[in-house]
TrEMBL record:
Belongs to the transferase hexapeptide repeat family. Gene3D superfamilies: Hexapeptide repeat proteins. It comes from the Bacteria. This is Sugar O-acyltransferase, sialic acid O-acetyltransferase NeuD family.
Length: 245
């Protein structure tokens, strides 16, 4: 459900109800399924593989003999630009599992490569996401089903919030960030650009995550993180009570 700051018609009536997904990684497939959930299977035209479908697509072909992935056709960059470079479909940036770089870094690179070609990355807010009033969501951000964004939150360009991610009041999510499934961001948290927050990770209130930092699955962050710092595990448990050191 969408709060009063983003009317249901905003970003849906003006943006095409069809999309191509750049990348063939797991996040690309999740985004494709989520977009199809709102716009129908015909709304996802296919994937754009980098550098070419034959190099990067999973085995399989369409009925016409073209490469396919996840039941949808896979296009090369040149073909995709020829078909949709002039509009008619949203360009949604996914991921590439073989790229050898973090997902936010890859997404940032693709985002700027599109801009250099005069193209614009699109975004969408799933109809089953909860985005409450007073939020600021960049048009290129992607918010998937059951994500929950409280008031006075800012979500930057090309950021992705996966299902059940929760962002509390007065927090900000920077450009190209990736909040994985069930990531929990407490209030007044500042997340700078290109940060990954893993599945079931928790950010305590008031912390700042600097650019490129990475929070592993299930980790609990109780202090600020330096640029490109990684927190991979939960902090060790401590005894509780008067005898605790």
């Amino acid at each position: 459900m969408i709060g009063s700051s983003i009317a249901p018609s905003d970003g849906k009536s003006t943006a095409p109800g069809r999309a191509v997904i750049v990348g063939t990684g797991y996040l690309a497939r999740v985004i494709a399924d989520s977009f199809a959930d709102d716009h129908g299977d015909d709304g996802v035209l296919g994937f754009v593989a980098l550098p070419s479908p034959l190099d990067w697509a999973a085995p399989g072909t369409t009925p016409s003999g073209e490469p396919s992935l996840h039941g949808r056709p896979v296009f090369g960059v040149a073909e995709a630009l020829a078909r949709w470079g002039g509009g008619g479909a949203r360009i949604l940036i996914g991921s590439d599992d073989r790229a050898g770089v973090p997902i936010p870094t890859w997404r940032r690179t693709v985002f700027h490569a599109l801009r250099a070609r005069g193209l614009r990355a699109g975004g969408f807010v799933h109809s089953a996401a909860w985005v409450l009033g007073g939020t600021t969501i960049d048009p290129s951000a992607i918010i998937l089903a059951d994500a929950y964004v409280e008031p006075l939150v800012t979500v930057g360009r090309n950021a992705v919030l996966e299902g059940n991610a929760f962002v509390s009041q007065h927090s900000s999510v920077g450009a190209h960030c990736h909040l994985e499934t069930s990531a929990l961001v407490a209030g007044q948290v500042t997340i700078h650009a290109e940060v990954t927050v893993g599945t079931n990770a928790t950010l305590r209130s008031g912390v700042t995550l600097c650019r490129g930092s990475h929070v592993g699955c299930g980790a609990i962050v109780q202090r600020d993180l330096h640029p490109f710092e990684t927190v991979a595990v939960r902090p060790p448990s401590r005894p509780f009570g008067p005898s605790a050191p």
